[in-house]
Structures are given as C-alpha cells and as structure tokens.
Amino acid sequence: MSFYDLDFIEKTFIHYAKENTRSYEENHDQVPTSPSQVKMGKELTKHLQDIGLDAYYNEKTGFAIGHLKKNVSDEVTPIGFFSHIDTADFNAENIRPQVHRNYDGKRVVLDEKEGIYLDPKDFPALASCKGETLITSDGHTLLGTDDKAGIVGILSMLKYLTEHPEIEHGDIYIGFGPDEEIGYGGRRFDANDFPNVELAYTLENGRPGDFEYETFNATEAQIHIRGTVVHPGEAYGLMVNAATLMNDFLDRLPKDEVPEKSKGYDGFILVLNATGSVDHADISLIIRDFDWNKFTAKEQLIKDIVAELNKKYSDRFSLKMRRQYENIYNVIKDQPYVVNLALDAYKKLGIKQNIQTFRGGTDGNFITQKGIPTPNLFNGGGNYHGRYEYATVEQIDKLAEVLTEIVKEHLYQTRNGRDEAPLKKYW
Ligand SMILES: [Zn+2]
User: Fold this and answer.
1) What's the predicted TM-score (pTM) here?
2) What are the transmembrane regions (predicted)?
C-alpha cells in the first residue's frame, strides 16, 4: 500500500538523479563547489514555488529555501527539513538510472559485458527490497540516492500536504543545500533563512526506522617539524633530521585507537598523511570520538606528545589544531523532544525504530551548533557513494509518510503536551 503518488516519486527521482551534482573539495572557496549545484538549487527553488511554497535561492550559501505556511491559528513552532543537492566523490557523468519493477530479490545485472552485478549475496539488505520498484545505476556511475532520495521524500510530503489542505500543520521550512559531502554545506547554512525554527531533521542514508542522534566529535591537526640540513659528511652533532623526528612522533600514537580497529562507540586517531625530509616534515591527522571526555583526552594527547618532543628536540614541532564539528548529542541530550517526536511518529506508523550511532558527521552537526537541534532520519535505499547505490520508490514513499506524520505529530503534541522523556544514553 502506498502513501503517496509512486509515479511522481519515480519520475521526480529519476529526473534529479540524472543531474551530475558532484561536489569538489578542491573548489571549496566557491559556493557551491560546482555550477551544476547552482542549476539544481535554482530548479528546486522553482519546484518548491510550483508546489505553493514561498521559496528563494540564497546565492551566498547555495541553499534553496522553502517555507510552507501554517494553516492553523495555534502557536506552533516551525519545523525544518534538510537534504543535500550534491553527490559523493564518485563518477557522476552520464548517470543512467535503471528501473527494476517488482524486483524479484535476485542478482541484478548492471552491465553484463563488464560483469557488473548488484548481488544480494554481497549486499544482503537488498532482500528487503523484494517486490518493490528498485532503481539502480548502470554500474558505471553512482545513482545519487544520497541525497536525492531525501529531496524527493520532502517534495512528496509537501505535495501531499498542499493537495490535502484538510491536514492541519504548523510552519514548515525546507533547506536543500550544496556540498554536504565535503563538509561545507551545513557550515555555510544561514540560520536566518529558518526564522524561529526550533527543530529540524536531515535525511541522510539508512532505511525506514533508522534514526541517529549521536555523531562523532571531530578535530583535525597539522604538525609541522623543522629540521636542520647540513652536509652529511660534516653533520656530526649538527644535523637535525625532521623525518627522524616525525617517526618519533608517530611511534608515540596509540596503536589500537585507529579506524581499522574501531567500531560502535570507539573513537580513533587517524594519520591521513605523513611526509618527511631532512629539512622538514608534515603530519596531518584527524581525531574522532563520540564521548566528549575521551575526545578531549585525545586532543590533549596530541598536545602532550608535541610538548614532550619540543622539550626533547628544542622546539622543532609546531601544532595547529582545529575543531571540525561536535557530536549533536551534546546539544540534543538537553532537548529530547526533537528525538522523541520522530520516534513517536515511527510508532504511530508501526515502523520499528533502529537507533544507530553515526560514525561521521553530517550537515546536522553544523546546523545543531547554529542553534537548531538537527538529528538524522533516513532516505531509503543503500550502498551509498558508489556504483552499487540503489533506491526504491516504496522506501522514498515511506519517507514522505514519516515526514508528514512528524508534522502532524508536532501539532498534536503542541496541543496535547510534548513527549519530553529523557533520552536513553547509549554509552
Ligand atoms: Zn549524504
């Protein structure tokens, strides 16, 4: 049984999926980082206007912003939804979506000649898509489920609400932003575009029932080491080899707190790059942890190692450390309503909740830090960021239903009392 118009979802998803909206880290001084994102941002603005929203494209941030006005006289705080226009760092040229109607649950041929298959043996989650309208790429590009499925879920919800004016709702704000995949979209979002919005959701990956309100805390660090070059034949007591000092630093890092030995709630320190010569050496690393105390302890460890080595080698090390984002739980733990509201909506729809930790960060991290607590729902599909990416029309439909239910539930709880139950702590 479908909630909304499956034909609209299929056509709209394929339409936007075909647009190459890849973001480019190397263009990070441009907003957005690719012209195709401007094009789609403006197209989405028009789409929002056509549905009946007040909408505009913010040239400074690259966000398409929409506002669906409330149709009740109640004092109800505005609610926001975000999804992103850009796609991940993978080939996005000539995306040719393939529709597999009434998917039989078996191996899907993406490119017979080149032997590219989407196989439930490799991706067991595919089994749950049996009987649905499965959409894949042709095996040579990504599909862009992340996050065009989120965009289409939002458009479907808006269309449903405007076609059913009897459904009461408060003010709804929409943000379709660029450059999420490279960490710039949410950082540039202007909260003035979401006046008085009290709570919002991102629609990042996962399937119906998934929910995330814990993400990493994140810091990056650059360490520069100065050496002293002298002729090797006359180096005794004079040469300081920066590469040797670099190795001393690397040796002191914890051996087990690395991504390849971490899962669940574990944090890590990852050396992204270390290059050294006699003259100088550079190390770049990132720190990730859910737990604030463990996170700041890791930051302190790096500072301590640098201090220790500066003592040992008379000030050859310099350190630049920068916080990238903070766990949204740090804020959301004191504002449980935003979580409970979504979980109550799942319950009303009979969707089994699956609360997960997100071993990364999203636009929600930056938006939460700007004062709007923003946990993550889902967008449907799977295998994000690569040639095996897929979506199903039915799961996007489920997303539209969930978004509509959240809007209804928010008004209901505004009238009848909010669910402020404290959040379960997972660590
Ligand atoms: Zn995404």
Assistant:
1) 0.91
2) none
